[in-house]
Structure of DNA-binding transcriptional regulator, MarR family:
Amino acid sequence: MLRTVSDRTDEAREPGDEPMPPADSEQLLRLERQLCFVLHATSRAFDTLYRPVLAELGLTYPQYLVMLAVWEHGERSVKELGQSLRLDSGTLSPLLKRLEKAGFVRRERSPADERSVVVQPTEEGIALRERAGDIPRRILRATGLDEQQLSELHGALSNVTSALDKAAEEIDRRE
Amino acid sequence: MLRTVSDRTDEAREPGDEPMPPADSEQLLRLERQLCFVLHATSRAFDTLYRPVLAELGLTYPQYLVMLAVWEHGERSVKELGQSLRLDSGTLSPLLKRLEKAGFVRRERSPADERSVVVQPTEEGIALRERAGDIPRRILRATGLDEQQLSELHGALSNVTSALDKAAEEIDRRE
DNA sequence: TAGCAGTCGGTTGTGCACAATCAAATGACG
DNA sequence: CGTCATTTGATTGTGCACAACCGACTGCTA
């Protein structure tokens, strides 16, 4: 059964802790479930599309993200990579080792601070950038989005993500 | 304060108000990269938020998705689960075994067709549904989205996903 | 009815992702 | 100087995800 959506939800929006009163839950809950599910699905759809394209270069999608960061900045510490890509060392360490073994990056301890490891592209890694040049365009076409839609979607996802981060942070603080 | 991905890029271009940007590939490529990245990030942000909540029930997020499907339909074949959740048997088989070992589902070969395996909730699995009842509401609040935004985002993601699926299908057909 | 192509799950191997834990280096403080 | 908390990567263990492959079952067809 389908409830009418148009019930009011107009009350004051405290970003803090509203008890979340709406009795019209059915519809909302359905939406929540669908959102989580479709997000999952979209993520995997992207992955599926990138996979064969990147395979030509010998990269996986997360490896590609790392190479993008390294190409752009010339060199990045593991910490910086982890922050910008939202990955922890348990994920990055083996991933970077695979990239090193593949010959795309060099890893070395910083002389300034022996705790940090600096990642930089090798010659081969830099050369790879050329071969990867047309990937974004190919992917872009597949999405079927124009610039407007692209940036709207990006904005919406950014907002959700930062809301979720804030919520997680909140929970963190509570213990 | 915690910044997300969408931080300003190096230049001061405001997205959305391009006058007439047909040949301006740089901007487009940047958007592509950001979209893929933020999608990845959003997916993980959701996961991070769900993780501790579901841990109370002894479920992971994909397991939760399976239970949602099973709760709703009473019983589902592995094939059906795979189709609706976009998971293949290599992922589902061990996942279902873990759910079985946890006591939430039963798995048995269909008498009608010995090839297929039917999954259904146990008593304990059905009981779990009650305890999971308030999860959507808690998550929903954390997203900070109202119903309108929620369904817009859902629509946008659905469109992208089906475009990507179509593209992948296209590629498939070409070999 | 005998054979065979297609369907359905399962297994194996690789890689991503996180939690928990650890060791080494650093930096602040007495 | 020595102590100790912090920072930084690495390691281990669990679970998700897919590709490639296998074996059992089904259903069609010669």
